[in-house]
Design goal:
By secondary structure, the chain is mostly helical. The chain contains eleven helices and no strands.
Length: about 325
Amino acid sequence: MQGKGTFISPFHRPRCLAAAAPAGKAKLTHPGKAILAGGIAGGIEICITFPTEYVKTQLQLDEKANPPKYRGIGDCVKQTVQSHGIKGLYRGLSSLLYGSIPKSAVRFGVFEFLSNHAKDESGRLDSTKGLLCGLGAGVMEAVLVVCPMETVKVKFIHDQTSANPKYKGFFHGVREMIRAQGLRGTYQGLTATVLKQGSNQAIRFFVMTSLKNWYKGDNPNKAINPLVTGLFGATAGAASVFGNTPLDVIKTRMQGLEAHKYKSTLDCAMKILRYEGLAAFYKGTVPRLGRVCLDVAIVFIIYEEVVKVLNMVWKTE
């Protein structure tokens, strides 16, 4: 009893650590839960934000040498709605939806798997490790899901806006692409995609991890309001847009129907710079900024909330 009264601070410190250790372990998210929650979040998000993705892709494919078909974002939306109605803004949704669910599932599954091994005893992940875990998640999603699905999406949208579309639907389009170029045809722009997705997720998870650590302070188990999560997600999304839009432009060109004009990722970058100027690397930035901020905010909010539900019904500890 005397030790208790004499050494109050030392006594309480072990108690706090003892309480924090189990709580830290409880904060670890099972990769299986992350895969399921990520897939659900990815599916819902893309249904909400696809029109801005459609406009972004159209503007990036609208090269100056053609000459340009659209005068800007508003004109692109106007022409699309006049020609095909509101549903025209959702052309190509199926290809992106089929890719968004597994993409988000792989991203969060790999991130949680890596971060579970990188967190300290209290369950805290520092910013640098968050960046590295995000990089690993981005590379894996690029190779397993993003590159083939994005190639299909870009070719499908490009085909649907041509004078005589040859693809009757998503699966027909995939069959025709593979028949014409083999599986290799769905992996066009792999280098640019790996660079884009790797840097994307590295930036996003670095920002998210930094903001979460700042918000939680010394309490790694402090709950975060969904609106705050959304604000952090939008900030992370904006940072990734300004950080790698040039890679996104190169990736889109490498995956379009005219990808044969480029010998490699570097050749594509050099030709864009030579014939269109530096500004061409930032074509579609505004619609991409709006989509990505909303995208990342929605995904992180839904992901965190679904994980909370899964923790109640799926015991993994």
